[in-house]
Write a structure and sequence with these properties.
The chain has a single domain, classed as Fumarylacetoacetate hydrolase, domain 2, CATH 3.90.850. Helix content is 23%, strand content 33%. It is built from 5 helices and 13 strands.
Length: 233
């Protein structure tokens, strides 16, 4: 039997979110995986959380690299460079670290575009709205990184041709990725869902969110795996 969810904010918010997900799937969208957010230490403390929040991903929000995205009507758009974890095996609640590691098939870069259209201070509302998700872009994945091998990876971000400082501590803001994968599997199991082989988890931004505006072009490289980009209009 699944464990109870201790935080009623998370229980109520996830119940609403999963209803939204079911509505999306019933309307013809296809599930591609899950996302986490608010996992940085400062965000966890501010929202009184023990672990990141979880949202869902469908093919409706998936864009190709170098896509052009209109920000018309958005309130506070943000771009987040992330690491995408592709699952090679189903993962159930209570899996130990080694089993979780063995379930990770590959790693690659991901870009998430979000619109923070209300203040991020209400956990239930954040979850019910699927953590502000609007679009994602996924790059190639590297199966030699199975088991979540991060050694030698560097995050490189270029904003309008200007290089930002490279990111070598890829888990400094996201927390441990294996722990994140376990958390996703555990929470989904508690809610009657399942983390499945073939699904992707995007693990949170490796830098503080980049608040963006029309006219920007952003490139993100998870070096040496792949480079992806987005044009904002």
């Amino acid at each position: 039997m699944s464990k109870p969810i201790d935080d009623p904010r998370i229980l109520r918010g996830m119940e609403k979110q999963l209803r939204l997900r079911r509505d999306c799937l019933n309307a013809g969208e296809k599930s591609i995986g899950w996302k986490v957010g608010f996992g940085a230490p400062a965000a966890l403390e501010r929202l009184r959380l023990d672990a990141p929040l979880i949202g869902f991903l469908t093919d409706k929000t998936l864009l190709p690299s170098n896509a052009t995205v209109s920000l018309a009507g958005w309130t506070k758009p943000a771009m987040e460079p992330e690491i995408a974890v592709t699952m090679g095996k189903d993962l159930t609640e209570g899996s130990d670290r080694e089993r979780t590691r063995e379930a990770v098939a590959s790693l690659g870069p991901a870009i998430e575009l979000a619109d923070v259209h209300f203040p991020p201070d209400d956990v239930e509302a954040i979850l019910a709205g699927n953590i502000y998700n609007r679009h994602i872009i996924l790059g190639r994945t590297d199966s030699s990184r199975a088991g979540c091998v991060l050694n030698g990876l560097t995050g490189r971000i270029s904003r309008n041709g200007q290089e930002l400082p490279p990111v070598t501590e890829l888990q400094a803001l996201t927390g441990d990725i294996i722990d994140t994968v376990s958390h996703v599997a555990d929470l989904l199991s508690m809610l009657g869902e399942k983390l499945r082989a073939g699904e992707v988890i995007i693990g949170g931004s490796i830098v503080p969110p980049l608040w963006v505006e029309p006219g920007e072009e952003i490139h993100y490289t998870l070096d040496p795996i792949d480079t992806i980009s987005v044009n904002l209009r």
